[in-house]
Amino acid sequence: MSTSGLARGGNVVSPASPVLTLRGVSKAFGAVQALREVSVDCRAGEIHALVGENGSGKSTLLGIASGFLVPDEGTVVVGETERRRVSPAESRRLGLGIAYQTYSHVLHLTVAENLYLAAPSDLRPTYGRMNGWAADRLGAFDLDISPTALAGTLSLAERQLLEVVKALLAEPKVLLLDEPTTALGPEDVDRLHALVHERSRAGVGVLYVSHRLPEVLGIADRISVLRDGVGQGTFEAASMSEESLVALMIGRPLQLAFPQRHEREAGREVLLAVSGLRGDRFGPIDLEVTSGEIVGIAGAEGNGQAQFLRALAGAERSTGTATCDGKELDSSSPLGPLRAGVVLLSGDRASESLFPVLSVRANATIQVLRRLGRLGFVNRRRERRTVDGLVKRLSIRTASIEQPVQTLSGGNQQKVSLTRPFQRGDVRVILAEEPTQGVDVASRFDIYGALREKAKEGVATIIKSSDPLELAGLCDRVVVMSRGQIVDEIPGDELGERRIVEAIVGSRAGARERAAESPEEST
Amino acid sequence: MKWSRFSGALPLVLMTLLIVAVGTFATVRQDAFLTSFNLNNLLLLAMPLALVSLGQTCALLVGGFDVSVAALMTFCVVVASYTMTYETSGWALLPGGLVLVAVGLGTGIFNAVLIRVLKLPSIIATLGTLSILEGASLLLRDHPEGPISSDAVSGLTKSVSFVPIAFIAVVVLAVAGDVWLYRTRTGLATRAVGLDETSSRRLGMATGRIVFFAFVACSVMASLAGLYLAAQVQIGSPILDIGFSLESIACAVLGGAALSGGKGSFVGTLLAALFLSLFDNILPLFHQPTEYSQITIGVLILLALVLYSAPDLLARFRTSRAGVGRLRSAEGDAAG
């Protein structure tokens, strides 16, 4: 980043008073502990970066700071005011501006109306002068967006910039930016960073959340690291390198026993071929997966990985072609891919793949009931035998197969959804979205084993995961997605957790290198 | 933008055209239609539906439904047979009327607490209220009895020439409502909450309070509608077989409200209520069975919904081709 040197000169970290302090903050979502006693402070005039892997609790922390989420424990101090619980409106009055990662736009309202709602009362013009005022505000940020356009018609980059403008509208003393560059091109990133520097020189404290380490190192004065919801310390940016940050972010010495990769004879047939597929938030994507291969998709959250998988399974709209075993997939609805043997294991188990109140038995056999019966009546004994066998094979820990799946642990729930591809003899492709999210360690390895077993039978598998360790241990090959496109590919012999994390955090640099056609990459 | 502005005015234009067309037809074919007696009668008969529909529009604006309004109206009629009895007259009627408004206020707060505090879906919550109110009505009067003060009736139906004063008030209310909705910040905030509650809360709006007020306003309007219904039936009847809940939703939708919230027009709703009442009024003039009215209303609602959503559908089709549009699977706030 060209601007970084300039800023750091004028912005030496001073013992300025903190404008935002989070003290001993904890937050749990159901059984998942998102944050555990995290303390962070942001001083006036500093750019304080917050880094961590996907799911490490960065957005949760910002949500608590802004008052959108209520912490289970701990306090938030904005300026002088200490609160356990503030509303978003109150924290804005106290001088806090935030740009959410998933935005705060009302898409059916115009840009001007969105800005108007975001403005505090003393900065609002009369209702009738809204459009002129909005054009003025947008002009001040050099944003070429029509105030009368509906927010829903803006491009993702425009939405992201508008979100930042909204955060700055009230002239905040603390500015929280949550992944503000995910949809931006290099030029817009530089512009945004120049803007952030300008604000911090004016005395605004900036809390900058990002997973892009080059950007973070270029812009931050101090960096705090989160791992699995636990603070790993705050460091002077000048003393850190990408390597040392990555080490802090992953920091797991644990080497786990992944299933043995099986030998795949060279030149095996391509089972799944995707070409020029594009849809909401991703594309165009070209990808080929051979029979028996497990391909991982890595990338920071929100770069189109989930949408890509869902589009392949027909759960989301897309254009372009995908073929399975030479036949074109009809991805206009989930039915086409299912008939062709393409199975999606959704990341949202509770609402998309399982029926939480139904039993293990019913959940396991719901797609194949026809085969278990005769003349439309299910043969219960045969059904039980099948399910019992699968429960043993996948080591599903359940008191009985009649137990509702909502009473099982997350890992065992996931194994229940895995029973489905095991019962259908015709499964060709498994698309697994975060197969081990919220899954205990022991169950994880049962799931890995099950996926590998299917691969040995010749099934092609794509796994989208935010856990680099899992991808490194399980996959034959990993592709890295950024801004909806595949920007890097890591072959099996180079696979390692560190290599994947580096590809994710430096994915922009990786993309450039690929464009320059230099196959060697420094690690 | 052109499209969206067009889609906003479409219901108003359509309803006006339908009223003019049907009115003209009736005028030409039936001498009895364009008489000040008939017009006065028509406007008075439209009052309950107009009032309750305006209230329903509030609930729809914040993305909810209130199916308890019909039961509340019946309950108000029953209560009126106690508080506005045949013997009372003049100013003594005022407390009786205020009791009805208080009933509406109480019901509204009850609904709003169920919806905002206990987080029940509005349709379920108000379904419960509906049942409670129906039972309460039968408890108070197990058969129609208790005539309602004729003084109240003549007061409520007072007219200037053929236009009831109450109708003028309703027109003023609807226009003021639209000015509020489309020309003030609180109106904009109300629409924003109906369109996208998460974003609204992030923008710092008091989403809870707005939804709360919307449901209270809906019930208060329904109690006023109940007052006019009492003036029509003139007896404390617990078994009025009335479809005001669905009809009020139909009027709001014909007037431009979206079932998903955030869209609507009070003037449009009023026009729709007038149109439906007009239709009910002219069928007997042409010696047609009133069943036709129900069928026609059903067909109209379906046609209107398709017509109103056409601009949106077109726009959505275009944006989805361009690769934008909000993520369907919400990447929740829990993600780090």
Mean pLDDT of chain A: 83
Number of discrete helical segments of chain B: 13
Provide the residue-averaged pLDDT of chain B: 87
Instruction: Give me the side-by-side strand order of the main sheet of chain A.
Output: 6-7-8-3-9-10
Give the percentage of residues in beta strands of chain A: 15-25%
Count of the domains of chain B? 1
Residues in β-strands, percent of chain B: under 5%
The number of helical segments of chain A is 19
Radius of gyration of chain B: 21 Å
Q: Largest interface, by Cβ-Cβ below 8 angstroms: which chains and how many residues each?
A: A-B, 65 and 38 residues
Q: Which regions of chain B contain 5 or more consecutive residues with pLDDT less than 50?
A: 320-336
Oligomer: heterodimer
Which fold name fills CATH's third level, the topology of the largest domain in chain A?
Rossmann fold
Number of strands of chain A: 22
| CATH 2nd-level architecture of the largest domain in chain A | 3-Layer(aba) Sandwich
CATH topology of chain B: ABC transporter involved in vitamin B12 uptake, BtuC
Q: What does it look like?
A:
The complex is a heterodimer of chains A (523) and B (336). Chain A is of the alpha/beta class and 523 residues long. Chain A has 2 domains: 241 residues, Rossmann fold, CATH 3.40.50; 169 residues, P-loop containing nucleotide triphosphate hydrolases (Rossmann fold). In chain A, 34% of the residues lie in helices and 25% in strands. In chain A, the strands form 5 sheets. Chain A has a 6-stranded mixed sheet, with helices on both faces. In chain A, strands 16-19-20-13-21-22 form a 6-stranded mixed sheet, with helices on both faces. Chain A has a 4-stranded antiparallel sheet with strand order 2-1-4-5, with helices on one face. In chain A, helix 9 crosses helix 18. The N terminus and C terminus of chain A are likely disordered. With 336 residues, chain B is an all-alpha fold. Chain B has one domain: ABC transporter involved in vitamin B12 uptake, BtuC. Helices cover 73% and strands 3% of the residues of chain B. In chain B, the strands form 2 sheets. In chain B, strands 1-4 form a two-stranded antiparallel ribbon. A two-stranded antiparallel sheet of chain B has the order 2-3. In chain B, helix 2 runs antiparallel to helix 12. Chain B starts with a helix and ends in a 14-residue tail after the last helix. Chains A and B meet through helix 2, helix 3, helix 4 and helix 10 of A and helix 8, helix 9 and helix 13 of B.
